[in-house]
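Why do we care about 3D structure at all? Because function follows from shape, and shape follows, mostly, from sequence. That is the central idea of this module. The next example makes it concrete: a single protein chain, its amino acid sequence, and then its structure expressed as tokens.
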Amino acid sequence: MLATPGFMLLDQSLNLVGFNSEAIQILCYPTKPDQIKQQSVFIKDKLNSSLIVHDTRSSSRTLSENGANQLCFVSEYVSGRRRYICRAFRINSSERSNGHSQALMALLLERHSLTTQSLDSLAQQFDLTQRELQTVSLLMEGLTSKEIANRMKISPNTVKAFLRLVMVKMNVSTRSGIVGKIVECKS
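And the structure:
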């Protein structure tokens, strides 16, 4: 079950044209989306403070049109314990404003997850069973033991048992140690 990505559509001045409910959920966490009174103003502020890179030496994705108006977005956004890959796309609109084509930007916040190839590699490297691998994959999405248990349709104690087995196989002693070992292996 894949999480729906957050999506925002911006005009050439970075004014919000539209967004989906997932975008507001990602950006306002841990606050509940229905507690945000002016969602479009909130998203614009979050965009300027967290998604646009003001120091171009940082890790970022750059959007430019003919070398002009370079705009850099972060490549990764962290919301709570979850990581999202930020992808920016320039869209050329067929509508014209003052004789010029109105450029639009689409911003996509996709949940960072392990690829099938990296999961297979991980399973071989640490001799993980399919259920241990599934547990690790959900852990990497930032889910709690209870959330993992709900997804896998098992008890939270069984999840904890799987995680203990994975810790022994990876020679670590904490959940964050599992994540650190995986990140270390990927780079």
